[in-house]
## 1
Amino acid sequence: MHFDEKETLRSDKNPAFDYCEARYWLAYKGNRIVGRVAGILNKAYIEKWKARHIRFGWLDFEEDERIAKALVEKVEEWGRSLGMEAVHGPLGFTDLDHEGMLVEGFDQTGTLATSYNHPYYPKFLEKAGYSKHTDWVEYRINLPEKMDEKLEKMAAIVQKRLQLNVVRFRKAKELLPYAPAIFDLINTAYADLYGVVPLTEKQVKYYTKQYFSFMRPDFVSLVTDKEGKVAAFSITMPSLSEALQKAGGKLFPFGVFHLLKAMKKG
């Protein structure tokens, strides 16, 4: 949604600016905007990974390799002025922002959590001197109508042996007390993934307000250990892709109805 994007890019709204700096550029042909890019200096990343890398994100451009080259060159110039040694992206301020560049699966509809780009994007970036550093893979899993009995028995044995408890929720507000522990678990589980930096307490509050308000509580599963601490969680959602396309990035006047209708599916 437009307001979410704007808040993410504003230093007075996004708590990631406590340890990040950013610069934004637009490319023009005459009076028409034909491209955009964000350059991000993530100081927490540099400190954790001991790598003097600057990030680029929010990269979009018309089908002209000169536009792509001009945009990333602006990020490179800014990075050099800061003493950085390399550029990588597309990355956000945190790993809860849209990241990565689509290199296959262009015939598939993107999800709320991922970016879509045309096939010429990676080609033009390669011509500008960039190469793929890592693969992020998204899977589609077809669920059976009935769970395998062996898996159910195995789950029951593990649950009993480790004294695990599956917590279910009826109302969204019942989730809120678990939010800090859920984000602590994210920080721990994702710590060694590519480019990840831990979320701060301020960011946890920000994302709790942003995401927990529209979760379907009956679609959230949480597992606690024998001490009552959060050990695992699962958040699932109906697809919002079609609803977001119909909304056109705006909640009003009709976008909110498309989203509410999509959220009721499941």
## 2
Amino acid sequence: MRPEWFNLLEQVSGVTDIDGTGETLEAKRDRLLDLLRDCGRVAVAFSGGVDSTVVARAAQQACGERAVAVTAVSPSLASGELDAARDIAEQIGIRHVVIRTDEFAEPGYVANAGNRCYFCKSELYTQVEQRRDELQVDTVVNGANLDDQGDHRPGMQAAKERAVRSPLLEAGLTKADVRALARMWDLPVWDKPASPCLSSRIAYGVEVTPERVRRVDAAETFLRETFGLRELRVRLESNDLARIEVPLVALPVLVERRADVVEQLTSLGFRYVTLDLEGFRSGSMNAVLPIEQLTLPTGTPATDA
């Protein structure tokens, strides 16, 4: 089953009023480029996902050699993501720097409450701030877009505290706009599924450890390679229970091969293996959070995926 944004993008081509506001994608693109030009020397928090790739591509066009893409590397980064980020940065032609972050040394991150992402983004932005002279940077920007305002994203508070800008959001681009712009620019990630950090697979309240995220990574790699899946999650619940989310059309295949799946995941250290009959959905971990935790005390939306 294809996501709705894919169906939408098939209906549009080139310059279009993609979100019904009366403003063309071309106008939003130009505003994005103007915003980045005004930022001076720019560092893009670059994961290699579609949002940060569009920002990096725009920064390269707007700022040229004054732009740099910065990728954070830690145990929470899924296998293959760093290589993919390097490849796309090379294709864009933007300078690329890798920074080793140490969010696992932060007790608030390891505790894995509803604001875990705040500590992760704080670590990244702090490291970039400390390297401003080395990186030759005036402004740090991220890939948050207009749709992220209504999501559970504690990292937005970290960005606010450190004056990190969100040019996609400022330019009024929605997620559908971002994907359409990526397609217009022939970026290969235009239809890449969301790929949040591995720590987002750990149930809130269960400590995040390098060993646990490694198990999740190995399990997802196995399922992806064995069944050819693009979108899936292996959620680690309490008592080392693995809750597998895949698109509904893939459920019968995994049920048929359940013995292989159970054998592989238990060999990785999971005690129990379950298949979520509701299927794949981003942010399912957030369903357990009380409503008061979905917004930080500051009023800034606190995502998990």
## 3
Amino acid sequence: MSTFLVFGDLHGKILPAFRLAAAWSIDHAVALDGLLQVGDLGYFPDPSRIDKATLRHAETDPLELGTFDIVQPNPLADAVFDEPHAAPGLWFTAGNHEDFTALEQLAAASGRPVDFAVDAYDRVRGIKDGRALAFTDGPRVGAIWGVDRDGANARQNLPPRGYIAEKAVDRLLHESGGCDVLLTHDAPCDAVRPGYGSELLATLIELARPAFAFFGHYRGDGGPATGDFGPTAVYHMAGLELGGKSGTPTPGSLGVLTWGEVPRFEYVPDEWLRTFTRHNWKWR
């Protein structure tokens, strides 16, 4: 049996996510096999390439610029990754707030067929678009990058790589052998509200039939998706905002995936999430 934590959008809060996971591991006496994340990691290693939305949010929330804390060795990252209960790694798909040029360069230079490191510690790893990573004694985790170009209220100002590619969907189905767990940033169509989301992702889920599918991107608390997706359990993961006066995680921004004979997923209760804040994350 293996245990993973699943995170919603991080928008730069990469080290806080590792600390949150370590705190959960300590409090529950459960070792973690990894962290999974649904895109909008907020990966911008080059200050000149940060998108306007991230810059705007960073004016009031410096945690939005957390990529800078992992791309070069530094004492803060050393302390987080050296924690005895730190997860061995975080694996993510790409959202729409990422430096796609940097991600594609790292993916191409990695020499690895499925995943690639984006940090100086080899602890934060992207899953290549349309590929699936098989964890030892765990699930095959597949990733589709980006958001749908044609859905309701779809964003029209992204670089081409920020949109879901049909060839990546086809690759996951036919070359990568499908997956047990699907990580996407956008939702399958009708998973949040009628007409919103991606028909391509809905079709992928219908054909691949993963046990679980997780997505982010949409505002509001996380929760089970609406709609009928056959045998696949589909969940919206809220963004890990650490907002408001208390600075606590958004409800439904973190869940526990237990992989065994009978895999299961459940959101981390709000009561526990409220013990972790933007004010105490470095030592909680």
## 4
Amino acid sequence: MIIIQSDDLRSKFINILLKNSFDKNDAELCADIFTENTLTGVASHGVNKFRSFIKMVQNNYVKPKAKPIKLNSFNALEQWDGNFGSGPNNAWLITERAIELAKQYGTGCVALKNTNHWMRGGTYGWKAAETGFIFICWANTIPNLPPWGSKEARTGNNPIIFAVPKKDGPVVLDMALSQFSYGKLDTYKKAGEKLPFPGGYNSDNKLTDDPSEIIESFRPLPIGLWKGSGLSLMLDLIASILSDGNPTFKLSKTEVDTGMSQVFIAVDPEKFFSKDEINNLVEQIISNFKSAEPIDNNVDILFPGERAKRTKEEYLKNGIPIDELVWEKINSIL
């Protein structure tokens, strides 16, 4: 591992994005998102993913100058077309639009089609919650998760995010619908480590904690087993209907995360309660949650988003540990 300061990492991202046809403002926003993802400990959707993102730009899957456009609207509900622009940039702008609608109507729902991988979905939950909004968003993906009882990937590990504002840092749950996301499987694989729990099946149809075997078989376990499988299907259905975009089965033609459908929902709780009332209730719920007796003294009860906040504070102070090979590959990008 080598240690890189966040400002240096951001500058590196910006320079590469500018060389790959991004406008200055778009390059800075995209670099901010990749840097933030890395700072919060999600290198799999930050620095480790940056090279493949640039490859998608160079292969014309991601169009760096494309902007999302509004297609239809009905009060607080809108449909937008991402025009195959940068996934992180599109998601950031559509999050802002959902917040604008929520300010006006109390809630805002924007469905987006023809967009690309948004990297860490939690980024947009943090943005909304830090502004005071409850937020839910999700995306469909290429088929990479078998329906329960099947050997064949026909649905996606469709990531879903829930975010709630809190004064000293929001509560943000960011999860794929597989027990371990492919990014997390790759992280364990690169580290040469086994999973802490079985995460899927190998090619012999046996449960395994070996991330390499799961990546090879393309058979991760859905969260909650059959429940996660059903939830994946529902998220795909709703995203496809609301956006009039591609369902997962149509995304199978590309083998990369492009042309996907996403939904962004913002709610303004201050339409009913004061900011202090909201924060007091959230703090009481979190305090009760964290007061549960741990199974042993080595276990720390954390609420969703707490680890990310701690990691960011540590990395801002001491620098970001980055795999040397990953850094070498980024420096080789033309």
